[in-house]
Amino acid sequence: MNIADDCVVTLAYTLRDSAGEVLDSATAAEPFAYVQGRRSVIAGLEKQLAGRAVGDKLDISIEPAEAYGEHSPARVQTVPRDRFPEGIDIEPGMQFHAGDEHGGRMPVRVTEVNEDGVVIDANHPLAGQTLHFAVEVLGVRAATAEELAHGHVHGPGGHHH
Ligand code: ZN
């Protein structure tokens, strides 16, 4: 069976950035599973895996446009220190949730603290990065009606409920 929309795909993978640093991984013992064609993984990964079968091993590089997007300078801003809780040290790498214009909550990361205030970045942490996946296809099967209705995989590598 080859990977097509509405298949459950089970993978082992190692994800590295362009510097070769490992960002994430899944193993045969603890695999990752997703439903193909539902945009639950980045577009470039779905595209490269389409048509593949169990046992296929691929080295894939995915440009930002098909991964987490370009890094947008408009999503970086400096806010006054007094907008943050008192009594805690604000340091680069900390994460907060900021209210957005739609009444939602979006995660932001502190990238710098300087005399003007706190620089926060609302881009995805992997925005602007080319991602390098070493992937092995461990399983391909048709998703069940229940999995398609839920939009996620049940069982190994997926949800248990
Ligand atoms: Zn479910």
Which band does the percent of strand residues land in?
35-45%
Count every helix, treating DSSP H or I runs of 4 or more residues as helices: 2
Number of strands: 9
Extract low-pLDDT stretches: none
| CATH uppermost class of the largest domain | Alpha Beta
Task: Write the CATH fold name of the largest domain.
Answer: Chitinase A, domain 3
The CATH architecture name of the largest domain reads: Roll
Structural description of this entry:
This protein is mostly beta strands and 161 residues long. The chain has two domains: 7-68 and 127-150, Chitinase A, domain 3 (Roll), CATH 3.10.50; 73-121, Thrombin, subunit H (Beta Barrel), CATH 2.40.10.330. Helices cover 8% and strands 38% of the residues. It has two helices and nine strands; from the N terminus they run E-E-E-H-E-E-E-E-E-E-H. The protein has helices at 43-49, 145-150, and strands at 7-16, 22-26, 32-35, 57-62, 76-79, 95-99, 105-114, 117-121, 131-142. The strands form two sheets. Strands 1, 2, 3, 4 and 9 form a five-stranded antiparallel beta sheet that branches. A four-stranded antiparallel beta sheet has the order 5-8-7-6, with no helix packed on it. Strand 1 (7-16) and strand 2 form a beta hairpin. The longest helix has 7 residues, at 43-49. The radius of gyration is 19 Å and the shape is elongated. The relative contact order is 0.29. Bound molecules: zinc ion. The site of zinc ion has 5 residues, from loops. Zinc ion binds at residues 150, 152, 154, 159, 161.
